[in-house]
């Protein structure tokens, strides 16, 4: 009886959610929304997307998906996901035109549908081409529940559309940040700190160990990755051989974790900035975006507003762990860079506080 009641409740919630999501409608592509939006020297900007903290390219397409990261008072704020057309330099919204198709996969059995299309506070993103050919978008969420929301990416009239199918609730006390897909239809995700620890930001500012990496599989749930504890665990990627690269944000380092003899062997690359999201470049190197700031003053109000947060973009050879700076800025135009992806001859750069995405020609196109 309890099982039947749960199924009836789930069906009712799904129908209600589907109607609300459908009623939200969709937006027209935008290229120059209202508001000032200055480009840094040598760069362009696509104005409008709010706090596009992480970016992922849909493979073999010109499309980029951007998150909308907004935190206030320690909780996430609802927002959109953005669809970027890298050819026409325009953007539109994705969540407001999404649909709901809850999966029967037991991995999502305890996940009720979101009641509203804008009921997500998105953070890290990962795209995964599953073994069944489905393109899966994983979205780290901080609104309503600490979770990873699962969407299928489908093409409708040549344009990507999202279909929400379920979620994975994060382990108690964790705060998800970066996420990357694994070859077995699962994912790895970083937890920046224990969100119930009253000293969490004090520890982050001091560079103390605060977080770890978790791996999730549909049949096995969550497990902590051995030897992954670091300060402010942030961006993460997975190499084809299973090697993990993790950005220890407040530790100012990139951590490499390799399997050897049944153990996770760890080595680190020290940096002079706060590394944020990590993404693979087409040539197999790692792209990293980060900031230069005093974490002890992170919550001190800026004067004048908005804050000018200096940023750095770099490239890492995953074999030698050699780092090279690609570009940097003082934050007085575009501020607070958090993610960099390469699409064609341009780097696209996200931010946790700007209302824009920046574009920088690649080294090859600048020659």
Concise summary:
This protein is mostly beta strands. Helix content is 9%, strand content 43%. The chain has a domain at 1-20 and 49-169.
Short descriptors:
367 residues, mainly beta
Describe this protein's structure:
- The protein has helices spanning 2-23, 200-205, 363-366, and strands at 44-47, 55-57, 63-66, 71-72, 75-76, 82-85, 90-93, 99-100, 122-129, 135-141, 147-156, 159-169, 176-181, 187-191, 212-217, 221-224, 233-238, 244-248, 253-260, 263-270, 274-280, 286-292, 310-316, 323-329, 337-343, 346-351, 356-361.
- The protein has a domain at 1-20 and 49-169.
- The strands form seven sheets. A five-stranded mixed β-sheet has the order 8-12-11-10-9. The chain has a four-stranded antiparallel β-sheet with strand order 1-27-26-25.
- The protein is built from three helices and 27 strands.
Order of helices and strands: HEEEEEEEEEEEEEEHEEEEEEEEEEEEEH
Count of alpha/pi helices: 3
User: What value does the Rg take, in angstroms?
Assistant: 20 Å
Helix content: under 10%
**Number of separate strands:** 27
Classification by helices and strands: mainly beta
Give the N-to-C terminal Cα separation. 69 Å
Order of strands across the biggest sheet? Answer: 8-12-11-10-9
Mean pLDDT: 89
Shape, principal axes of CA atoms: globular
Assess the beta-strand content as a share of residues: 35-45%
Sheet having the most strands: 5 strands, mixed
Oligomer: single chain
Q: Stretches where pLDDT falls below 50 for ≥5 residues? A: none
Could you outline the blueprint of secondary structure elements for this entry?
Layout: H1 2-23, E1 44-47, E2 55-57, E3 63-66, E4 71-72, E5 75-76, E6 82-85, E7 90-93, E8 99-100, E9 122-129, E10 135-141, E11 147-156, E12 159-169, E13 176-181, E14 187-191, H2 200-205, E15 212-217, E16 221-224, E17 233-238, E18 244-248, E19 253-260, E20 263-270, E21 274-280, E22 286-292, E23 310-316, E24 323-329, E25 337-343, E26 346-351, E27 356-361, H3 363-366
Parallel strand pairs: 8-12
Antiparallel strand pairs: 1-27, 2-3, 3-6, 4-5, 6-7, 9-10, 10-11, 11-12, 13-14, 14-15, 15-16, 17-18, 18-19, 19-20, 21-22, 22-23, 23-24, 25-26, 26-27
């Amino acid at each position: 009886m309890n099982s039947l009641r749960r199924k009836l409740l789930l069906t009712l919630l799904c129908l209600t959610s589907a109607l609300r999501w459908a009623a939200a409608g969709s937006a027209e592509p935008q290229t120059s929304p209202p508001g000032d939006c200055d480009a840094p020297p040598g760069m362009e900007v696509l104005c409008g997307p709010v706090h596009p903290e992480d970016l992922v390219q849909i493979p073999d397409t010109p499309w980029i998906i951007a998150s909308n990261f907004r935190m206030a008072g320690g909780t996430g704020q609802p927002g959109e996901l953005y669809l970027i057309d890298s050819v026409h330099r325009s953007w539109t919204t994705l969540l407001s035109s999404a649909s709901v198709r809850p999966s029967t996969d037991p991995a999502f059995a305890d996940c009720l549908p979101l009641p509203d299309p804008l009921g997500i506070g998105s953070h890290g993103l990962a795209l995964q081409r599953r073994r069944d050919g489905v393109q899966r978008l994983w979205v780290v969420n901080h609104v309503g529940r600490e979770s990873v929301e699962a969407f299928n990416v489908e093409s409708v009239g040549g344009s990507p559309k999202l279909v929400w199918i379920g979620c994975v609730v994060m382990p108690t006390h964790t705060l998800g940040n970066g996420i990357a897909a694994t070859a077995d239809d699962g994912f790895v995700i970083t937890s920046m700190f224990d969100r119930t620890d009253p000293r969490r930001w004090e520890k982050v500012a001091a560079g103390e160990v605060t977080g770890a990496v978790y791996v999730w599989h549909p049949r096995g749930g969550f497990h902590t990755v051995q030897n992954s504890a670091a300060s402010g665990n942030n961006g993460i990627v997975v190499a084809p051989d299973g090697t993990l690269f993790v950005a220890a944000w407040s530790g100012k380092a990139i951590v490499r974790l390799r399997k050897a003899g049944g153990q996770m062997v760890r080595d680190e690359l020290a940096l002079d900035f706060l590394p944020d999201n990590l993404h693979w470049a087409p040539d197999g190197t790692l792209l990293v975006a980060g900031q230069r700031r005093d974490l002890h003053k992170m919550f001190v109000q800026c004067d004048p507003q908005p804050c000018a947060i200096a940023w750095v973009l770099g490239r890492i050879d995953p074999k030698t762990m050699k780092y090279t700076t690609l570009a940097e800025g003082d934050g007085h135009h575009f501020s607070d860079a958090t993610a960099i992806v390469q699409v064609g001859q341009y780097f696209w750069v996200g931010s946790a506080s700007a209302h824009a995405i920046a574009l920088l020609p690649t080294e090859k196109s600048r020659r």
